[in-house]
Write a structure and sequence with these properties.
Blueprint: H1 10-20, H2 26-37, H3 39-44, H4 47-54, H5 58-67, H6 73-84, H7 91-102, H8 110-131, H9 134-146, E1 150-153, H10 159-171, E2 176-178, H11 186-190, E3 198-202, H12 209-220, E4 225-229, E5 242-245, H13 258-275, H14 290-294
Parallel strand pairs: 1-2, 1-3, 3-4, 4-5
Helix pairs in contact: 5-6, 7-8, 8-13, 9-13, 10-13
């Protein structure tokens, strides 16, 4: 896997990592995911600290860098350090700043758990705002608007995100179908999707097998796909027409859905502004509002 000339900048490096990812060993894939999700931390942490976070021996990082044409990890790390000079603060830096602002202290109480989660969620939302592409949001809303039917799939911890999408899209009068895993029919239901439709898929590590299979099946049929996942190296990435990569940061119990839920709601609010022709003040109807009640079938 050696190359004659190693990448000269961060962008070239990331392109090369993406190109080679499928052929990499499991440990190299894990290293690649960490590098792409945490570029600011890679710039400032020692190789030992990075290795500890990944659960991989530091020597593997050295060999990984050498496989890309560098003499060692320090040379590869230099590209991340150069990028950091113009980059926004990363998740860890935002979290430290928030902890300092709120008053950092050891607190093992029930309220302390809430405080820790809130700090992490605020940092994740700040990262989302800094990293999300305006062009991708426009492209995603374009696909949502012109599709005849929006098919939704997300399982395990991703299920709440697609449940929110189903609720809001339904209240907006947009035809949507949830590819529900119950009964084992999701894969068969996906076969009815046409190129006039859209698949909206949500999946995070460890990726639900059925979700990955459906995405690959639908992509082969040339159906447009919007995906929310945790990495540009996720199994959904190669099939997505529009990919929103929301990095997964370590949580003590389970990943927070604050950033993915916020992103999903932002896309539906943007869609509402188009459908209602009210870009300044879009409204999402509820079942208790007059507009929402009008959309309910007669009893």
């Amino acid at each position: 896997m050696n190359v004659a000339e190693p990448p000269k900048n961060y962008e070239e490096l990331i392109r090369l990592v993406h190109d080679r990812y499928e052929a990499m060993s499991k440990s190299y894939q894990a290293i690649s995911v960490y590098l792409t999700q945490n570029p600011n931390d890679v710039a400032v942490l020692s190789v030992s600290a990075i290795a500890e976070r990944c659960g991989i021996h530091a020597s593997s990082f050295v060999r990984f860098a050498q496989s890309l044409g560098y003499e060692g990890f320090k040379e590869l790390q230099g590209l991340f350090q150069k990028r950091l000079s113009t980059a926004a603060p990363g998740f860890e830096a935002r979290m430290r700043a928030l902890e300092a602002e709120l008053g950092s202290r050891e607190d093992r109480s029930e309220l302390g758990f809430l405080r820790d989660l809130v700090v992490r969620d605020i940092a994740s939302l700040q990262d989302l705002l800094a990293d999300v592409s305006a062009d991708k949001i426009v492209e995603a809303v374009d696909l949502l608007q012109k599709s005849e039917t929006v098919y939704l799939i997300g399982q395990l911890r991703s299920a709440p995100v697609v449940d929110l999408l189903r609720y809001v899209l339904t209240m907006l009068g947009k035809r949507c179908v949830l590819l529900d895993p119950s009964g084992g029919l999701a894969t068969y239901m996906a076969r009815t999707i046409t190129q006039r439709d859209l698949l909206f898929a949500v999946s995070f590590r460890f990726y639900a097998t059925e979700v990955v299979n459906v995405v690959e099946q639908v992509a082969a049929a040339k159906v447009p796909i919007i995906a929310i996942s945790d990495s540009t190296l996720s199994p959904l990435a190669k099939s997505a027409s529009v990919l929103f990569a929301v990095p997964e940061h370590e949580y003590t119990f389970s990943r927070s859905l604050a950033a993915p839920m916020c992103l999903a709601q932002a896309l539906t609010v943007a869609l509402a502004s188009r459908l209602q022709q009210s870009p300044d003040s879009p409204r999402i109807p509820t079942v208790t509002s007059p507009q929402g009640r009008q959309q309910q079938p007669a009893s």
